[in-house]
Amino acid sequence: MIKPLIYNTAILLLLLSPLSLSFHIPSSSKNLKTQSQSSDLRSATSDLPTPVHDEVQKANSFLTDDAMERAEAGSKEEKIKLSKDVTQTWTDIHAYAAAIREGKTSWEDISQDDMDYRLKWVGLLHRRKRTPGKFMMRLKVPNGIVTSSQMRFYSKSVSEFDEEIGVVDITTRQNIQLRGVTVEAASRIIEGLHELNQTSFHSALDNVRNVVGSPLAGISDTEVIDTRKLCTEVNDLIIRDASGAFGNPRFANLPRKFNIAISGGDDDFSHCNINDLGFHAVIAEDGSKGFNLDVGGYMSIKRVAESVPLNLWIPENSVVKLCDAVLTVFRDEGERKNRQKSRLMWLVEQYGVEDFTARILKEAGEGGFRERQPHVLRKDYVRQELLGVHPQNSTHSRVGLHIPTGRLTRYSCAALADLADKYSDGEIRLTVDQNVIIPNVDNDDLKQLEIEVDAIENVDFTAGLIEGNVVSCTGAQFCGLALVETKANARRVSKRLEELVEVPKAVRMHWTGCPNSCGQAQCGDIGLMGAPARKEIDGKKVAVPGVNIFVGGKIGESPFLALEPRIKGIPLDGEEIVTVLAELLVSDFGGVMR
Ligand SMILES: *[C@@H]1O[C@H](CO)[C@@H](O)[C@H](O)[C@H]1NC(C)=O
Ligand SMILES: *[C@@H]1O[C@H](CO)[C@@H](O)[C@H](O)[C@H]1NC(C)=O
Ligand code: SF4
Questions:
Q1: pLDDT at position 56, please?
Q2: Could you tell me which residue ranges the Nitrite/Sulfite reductase ferredoxin-like domain spans (predicted)?
Q3: Which stretches of the chain score pLDDT less than 50?
Q4: What pLDDT sits at residue 57?
Q5: Which residues, in sequence order, are CB contacts of 485 under 8 Å at separation 6+?
Q6: Which of 85, 90, 124, 569 could share a disulfide with 119, CB 3.0–4.6 Å?
Q7: Predicted local confidence at residue 21, as pLDDT
């Protein structure tokens, strides 16, 4: 449900608290004087577009006294969240954008705390280091399902930015990131998203991230539970307030980010083992449907933790309740001083698994919860392929298209939207492997679909077993934390490997630019993580960008994280990396040199 927008109240709020917009006023003459600032902003808000709440309830008001005390004594990020409530950004962004559009200010005048931190509450991540003044805008795409109108809107949104940086990425959370976004464009994009029943709110920093579900929900005959409805409901718990408007102050000040994955069947396409909450669909002994729960999985620079199982089974219709309970406990009790220790796993360990279970059950109340239910994998189990053409029933098929490193251009977005309108009733599904699935295609149309896909640049109907299974984080092109460029290298190297080696089955290569491991190197059959390397140039060893190589990560029913690299410090530039990887493909993955 889309709430009617109530303009006046938000304008009133701004009038009442004009200083809530925290412009930082440097002394240089081009900038606004403090005196005129608030009145300028007031007139700038005359066309204020999208206030989302009739009354902005504060995120900080939901913290318990204890959590508040710990936040006050907490990390730099905690102090930023306390000094101005993050929910304020839901209206600030429109005022900032309007003021810039009217030439009254520029992004440099916005305080660094707002630019680089608080605007993350509307999904804006300032790429100060690589593209100053430009944002990556992260959306929410529950279960990774987008409509053709949304896809067309992404294309249109980035089309006003330089072609080089105005791109759209599919992420490892089955999500969309728009790149090259300016402050002045951001508010219009948010409005457009909201009109399309989608939002960018709550998608970065200390928020619950995109809720991942099965890309084959509703179209796989081995599915136990259709994850679409649940992902949407859990997403609504996070992004909407009690009235259904976008932005939920209840969960807007968490101690740290939080990941939820819901797997609808045996393939675990959602990767429960690396999420804070991982729901595995399991039919209970009496035949009712629900989920065994794993908790605490995450990846970071300091620690990579595989999730641990709780002795808990949750009926399908209590999933939202359980998420609500865990988020409440996490919000109120999670660590707020040392950010390296504020992910859920640390709270689980502080309690101990049993006491943690008891604590969240107490919070949740009645919900038909039971002990973990036994789960035996079918004898004939084979993980379903996502890429390529696969029959859904006697007349229709799903078609998995390869998107190299998940990078879409304005043109390929628009082309995908057209394809979806023509062949799948406007539906496009995103996968955590950064590809797309066009579902429900009439078998009679497959040939024509293939011809049309072949005409689209950067979208492949068929892809090699190496190239098709590359996953890559953002890397140095945009990410300030990157030690190396990833997407371009991933494409170059996988193309070379495809020419050199023939492999008998898919090899998943995961590229990640730094130990934060957004590209999940530890999950890959082969993982490549940005790292220092040395190379001999003119008889001298010099430092060059390189990678450490992890081998043997597993996903699916028996997940495994390769925690230590097998090979270290291979330079990215040149042929050595290709040779090393080709050898690995032969020694460990049954590859044969062509
Ligand atoms: C918008 O999304 C919500 C779920 O978030 C759904 O319940 C509602 O029906 C959708 N509205 C429209 C108009 O599609
Ligand atoms: C096959 O799936 C399509 C797409 O979901 C559906 O429209 C059609 O009715 C199904 N056909 C049969 C025979 O079940
Ligand atoms: S893994 Fe590192 S380089 Fe890659 S996107 Fe994440 S933070 Fe940036």
A1: 63
A2: 128-195, 390-453
A3: 1-20, 23-51, 54
A4: 74
A5: 475, 476, 477, 513, 545, 572
A6: 124
A7: 52
SS3 state at 307? coil
Place of tokens 């066309």: 47
3-state secondary structure of 112: helix
Q: How far is the CA of 199 from the centre of ligand 3 (A)?
A: 23
Query: Which residues contact residue 361 at a Cβ distance below 8 angstroms, ignoring those fewer than 6 apart?
Result: 312, 325, 369
**300 C-beta closer than 6 A to ligand 2:** no
Calpha distance 228→26 (Å, rounded): 49
Short-list 240, 222, 229, 234, CA closest to 261: 234
pLDDT digits (tens, 9 = 90+) for 168-180: 999 999 999 999 9
Helix, strand, or coil here: 40? helix
Q: How far apart are CA 465 and CA 398, in angstroms?
A: 19
Q: How many helices (H) and strands (E) does the chain have?
A: 16, 23
8 Å CB contact between 199 and 108? no
| Gap from CA of 150 to ligand 2 centroid (Å) | 25
d(CA 200, CA 137): 7
Q: Can you tell me which residue has the tokens 């460029």? A: 485
Does the beta carbon of 519 sit less than 6 angstroms from any atom of ligand 3?
yes
